Amino acid sequence: MTETPAWRIQGSYYETCNCDAICPCRRQNGVAGGRSTYGVCDFLLSWHLAGGNFGDIDLAGLSVCLLGSYDDNEAGSPWRVIVYIGAQATDRQFGALGQIFQGKAGGNMMFLRNILHYVAIRRAHIALDHTAGAETIRIAETVRAQVLRQVAFDGTVSCGIPGHDHPGRENFSSASVKDGPFQWDYQERCGFSTDFSYGT
User: Fold this and answer.
1) Phi, psi at residue 111, to the nearest 5°?
2) 194: helix, coil or strand?
3) Averaged over 81-86, what is the pLDDT?
4) How is the chain split among helix, strand and coil, in percent rounded to 5?
């Protein structure tokens, strides 16, 4: 049986979902959040890896996105997702990131326990801009998201996905998604930007 190698990834993070800003699942000034605004959360998450490795496999420069949805009224609110890995990933890099983002490599990505069903894990042409205040996501010709403007808030906002030890910036965002079971468009909904660091 092959032992899973030690791994780490770090870089920048931007997400958007159909909740009203500030997203009710965030912590505001350390106070825990709650259910999504509309009961069903449609979300798009993105990571740009400034550095990282999976054993001897270099992962720097790659991007990963996760598209999905969950229903607060379903027991456990399980997520159903598509994982996109940047098209330039080699087979070894794709395999490593596939293990990491399915939770098969261990580590501190605790939110992955929420995922019930992986609709697909596939390569895609991903273009991310994580410039503060101008974040965008483009995945092939089917998925788009962008920051519209920052949310004025006096205090700290954090999200459990990058980790509450990585507070960031809440913003108003728009998104257009047309991929398999995930089909939606929204404007003036929530977004969040920060950095991240995961590993074993």
Assistant:
1) -65, -20
2) strand
3) 98
4) 10, 55, 40
